[in-house]
Amino acid sequence: MKTVTLKIEDSVSEKFIWLLEHFSSSEIKILEQSEYVSDDEYLRSINGMVQSIHDAQNEPTENGVTLDKLEW
Predict the structure, then answer these.
(1) Number of Cβ atoms within 10 Å of the Cβ of 8
(2) Element (H, E) at 62
(3) In the 3-class helix/strand/coil scheme, how is 4-71 assigned residue by residue?
C-alpha cells in the first residue's frame, strides 16, 4: 500500500472526501485530515526548534560531520 499526501482546495474538499469514502476500507484508508501548514510554520510550532536551529548555526564548523561520515 502507498501513502500519498495531498493539498486539496477548500472548494472541492467535501467532494473529494465523498469520493474517497466510496472505496472499501481495504482499498483506501483516510489516515489523517488537517489544515495545510507550511514546513516553516510546522517547524516553528515545535517547542525549542527555533532555538536549536540558531544554536546549530553558531556551532563551529569543526564540530560538523562530513557527508561521507553520515549513516544513512
Answers:
(1) 13
(2) none
(3) CCCCCCHHHHHHHHHHHCCCCCCCCCCCCCCCCCCHHHHHHHCCCHHHHHHHHHCCCHHHCCCHHHCC
**One digit per residue, pLDDT tens: the chain, 72 residues?**
888 888 899 999 999 999 999 999 999 998 888 888 888 988 899 999 999 999 989 999 888 888 998 887
Torsion of CA 56, 57, 59, 65, to 10 degrees: 70
Asked if 39 contacts 49 with a C-beta cutoff of 8 angstroms, the reply is no
The pTM assigned to this predicted structure is 0.47
Cβ-proximal residues to 37 (8 Å cutoff; 6+ apart), any chain:
45
